[in-house]
Structure formats: C-alpha cells, structure tokens
Design a protein that fits this description.
Layout (H helix, E strand, L loop, with lengths): L6 H12 L16 E10 L6 E4 L6 H9 L4 E12 L51 H10 L9 E6 L26 E2 L13 H10 L16 E6 L6 E3 H13 L4 E4 L1 E2 L7 H12 L3 E5 L19 E6 L17 E4 L20 E3 L2 E6 L7 H18 L11 H11 L8 H4 L6 H4 L6 H4 L4
Parallel strand pairs: 4-6, 4-8, 5-6, 8-10, 10-11, 11-12
Antiparallel strand pairs: 1-2, 1-3, 3-7, 3-9, 13-14
Helix pairs in contact: 3-7, 4-7, 5-6, 7-8
Length: 454
Amino acid sequence: MTRSLPIALAIALLAALTTAATSAAATRVDRAREFAPHQLIVRFDGERFGRARELAAGVGVRQAADALRGDPAVDYAAPNYIATASAAEEQQIPNDPGTLTGLPGVPGGWVSKQWNFLPWEGAGTPLLPTSPGGIDAIGAWENVAAVKRPGARGVTVAVLDTGIAYRPLGSRYRRSPDFSAGQFVKGYDFVDNSRMPLDRNGHGTHVAGTIAEKTNNGVGLTGLAYRAKLMPVRVLDRLGRGRADDIAAGIRFAADHDADVINMSFNFGCGKKVPSVAQAVHYATHRGAVVVASVGNLGSESCVSPPATIRGVIGVGGTTEGGCLGDYSLAGTDVDVVAPGGGVPAASCPSVLMEPIFQVTFKGGKERRFSEPADYVGTSMAAAHVSGVAALVLVSGVIDRSHAGGSIQAQVATRLKQTARSIGLPPSLEGAGLIDAARATDPECQLACFSHRP
C-alpha cells in the first residue's frame, strides 16, 4: 500500500529539490516506463514555469508528488510523464506524380494515393474524382490563392514530434526529397539538447509532410499548407517517446519563436494530469498560437488523453477513406473534430475502404532512403490534417487575427467545427464532424453555409 510522505518530510524534500542538479534533463527512459525515474516536475509559487527536479535515492515518485501537493509553497508537482506518438496563385491541380520515381510533370499522379485531399461527393469540382473521406484540399487551395496567400504563405507550423528530415548531415543523413531547404525555420532538439532536430524515427517527417510537403514540384505527393514554413521541434526520441519536461519546453520554444500553429501527434497515458504541458499550452495560446493534438489510438491509449484533453487544444479523431470513423479512434467529450487518419473502419461502418495516409518518409527505417510507406494510420495523421487546414484558415481572411474577434485559437476551432460535415455519429465519436478544408477557408461560407451542413 502506497502512503503519502508526512508534510515534514515534504518540506525537507522541497529543499533537496531546489538544489537538485539541472543535468536531469539528460536522463533517458526505458521504453516500458510511463514516467522518467527519480524525477518530478515541480512549480513553486512565484516561479514562471515548472521544471524537472531530481529526487533523493529511495524516494518514490508518486509518494513525493502526493506529499508536495499538500504543501502551500507548491503550485503543482507531477511525475515527468512520457508521451508516445499516436501512430498512425498557381496551378491548383498539383503535378506531383504520386511516387518518388514517377515521371515529373504528370498531372494528377498524387490522386491515386491521396484520397484524403480529394473533394467529397457534392463538394463541386469536375476536375477530379471524389472520395467519401476527402476534405477538399483543392477548394481550400483555390480560396487562399484568391486572396494572394497560396499554400498558407506566411504561416509557420511547429511540428513537435520525432524531428523532421529537414536537412542533410554528412553522408549518412539526407533531407526528404519532397521538402526544400527554404521551407524551414530554426527549430530545436529537446531530446538530445541540440540545435539540429533531425528525425530518427520517420513519424515526424510523415506528419510534417501532410502539413506542408512541397506541391507542384514534380516529386512525390502533396501537402496541405505547402507554402507554410515548418519549425522542427524534436520532443520524441527514436522510439517515439518523449518526456513531459521536454514537451513543455518544446511548446514554449515554438510559441516564443512565433509559431502560428503547433501540432502534437502524440499522447500521454489515459487519465494522466500533465500540468507543466498544460501550462505551456496556455502560454502558447495566449501568444496567439493554434494548438492541435491527436486524441490517441485504441491499443496505445484506452481513453482520450492529454494533450488533447487540455483546455483550448483542438482534439482530433481519425476517419477512413470511406468516410467512417477509424476503428482505432477513441471517444470522449474532448474530441473536437475528426480528420483523415486512414486504416480500418469501425465495425458499424458499411464501407470497406481502408487505404492509409501516404506521405514521403523513411523507407524501412533507413535515414538515407525515402518512400511512401503504407503503414501510417491513426490520429497522429488526423491531427496533421487539422494543423494544415488551420494554417490555411489563418491566411484565408475568415477570422480576425487582431484578436478583436476573440482568441485566435478559439476562432480557428470554431471555424473548423462550424464548417465540418457530420458522418452520422454522436459528438463523443466525431466531435463536430469531419473537417472540410474548402468550406473552412471560404469567406462566403457564413451562417447560411453552416445551416446547410449535410
């Protein structure tokens, strides 16, 4: 039976914590752990942010947290929880061939793979086939091009993940061939405390590809906000796992370096309270950032989990090619919207369409070889779609970025919800529905448009 430490011992513990060495940030964690050993994240009254602090030998993490929470000098004390990745004016019809080895300049090659970007039936374009699970990226591209902001030009999206293959490093590491060097701004690696947040997993490169992979370059596939800048922020290690203190620091870094959108395609465990990350999210949204997170995948998590449950975050569930809920997508009141995550549909759905989400990333885990693997499915991929569309919304002119219309986060979330289309499920499963990129970015889609949602 676990008991809380007496308050007297907690006071002694406080003294030890304030003098603890800050080298704790270098501590690595075992894959099976749910929090970093021998550490707490503690914020004392008067401090701006909480930080990781070492515990004395023999002091249990949960016992220490319980004891410190009872002390009036402590604002919060929580284990340093571990999050895991949730996996799964120009030409408006891109010429991307759909494969890295395809012939450049062949229009429409991407269509055979990127069902998720196609119009849905009734969306209204004679140029392309439709997909029941599509979000009509083409309509959104036309909308933002009309206001001279093609591809969300001028927006910066921070990708908090395993890093991005955003630049070469010697002979053993290459930049993804469907990114250009000029589309990245300065990032940081909080896992290895480095200025070079290179991907060692592939998950972050895939997520970044959905958000802003290059378009009309005759290579590979397309990205949603293809003119946006990407900020690589590495907070997950090569196993796709990251500590709360690194994640909180990554969020603050993105906010301090003017990220307009912050994507977090990872989750902590079911029911965990992660106050340092919540505080960092609130810091970011108060600075005007739009914060998006995956709700988690059944099997990795058992309920909708933070950061999606943090107040103000747009929590995203996953849908399939057939416009169904993915069998992995979790249910709860913190599901705000759903977006393409690919994969197998829930058993109640009649559609059998189950293509994954394709983007360019590592082939077989090799950091020098790239392909379009067919095994990326889940709410990680869904969150990336919402971040990409959020970037397009920010430049479309449909919200007031001066804050006069309310917080930017709230305005974007409301816009995404009001223009989403129902897939016939209760809100606990679909939130407000499946995002519609074209309607979300259409200045003429106001109250009359909302009232005619299918």
